[in-house]
Design brief:
The chain is an all-beta fold. The protein has one domain: Beta Barrel (Thrombin, subunit H). It has no helices and 13 strands. Strands 6, 7, 8, 9, 10 and 11 form a six-stranded antiparallel β-sheet that branches. Strands 3-4-5 form a three-stranded antiparallel β-sheet, with no helix packed on it. It has a two-stranded antiparallel ribbon with strand order 1-2. It is globular. The two termini are about 35 Å apart. The C terminus is likely disordered.
């Protein structure tokens, strides 16, 4: 990869602390580090998940498309929590050579779903960024 002024072997790592790193495996040098957190945010708390604790940042495996952007694009979804306790999930496209955000991102991952059940007064459920619980059906994962 053309990174940091030369052609290098590169290993990428994404963390639950919401960071993405590029390392040179031959020297151990950190080539770049990028955070997926917005200003004032922290990685999400565990959201009652016992498998990923104490925080949730980047859980899914990043995907690289070598044909996008100037050097290739790495796609990651970062989860965070703002100062008011609201959870966010954002799709980031990062330049694989620099870690810079591409394509005007990140993009919020949002969705809604119909609330079901008799007597509901909320026709649309909450955002996917938060784990929802409905006592009629158990936990609905985000």
């Amino acid at each position: 990869m053309p990174v940091a002024g030369g052609a290098r072997n590169v290993v990428y790592a994404a963390t639950e602390n919401a960071s993405v790193y590029a390392f040179d495996p031959d020297t151990g040098a950190t080539l770049w580090k990028t955070s997926t957190l917005a200003t004032g945010e922290t990685p999400s708390d565990a959201r009652s998940c016992t498998q990923i604790a104490p925080s949730i940042g980047i859980t899914a495996t990043p995907v690289i498309d070598r044909t996008r952007g100037p050097h290739g694009a790495m796609y990651v979804v970062g989860m965070s929590k703002d100062g008011a306790g609201r959870c966010h999930q954002r799709l980031h496209a990062l330049d694989v050579a620099t870690g810079a955000e591409l394509f005007g991102g990140p993009a919020d991952v949002t969705a809604s779903y119909p609330d079901i059940g008799a007597g509901t007064d909320n026709p649309v459920g909450a955002s996917v960024a938060r784990r929802q619980t409905d006592s009629r059906f158990g936990a609905i994962p985000y």
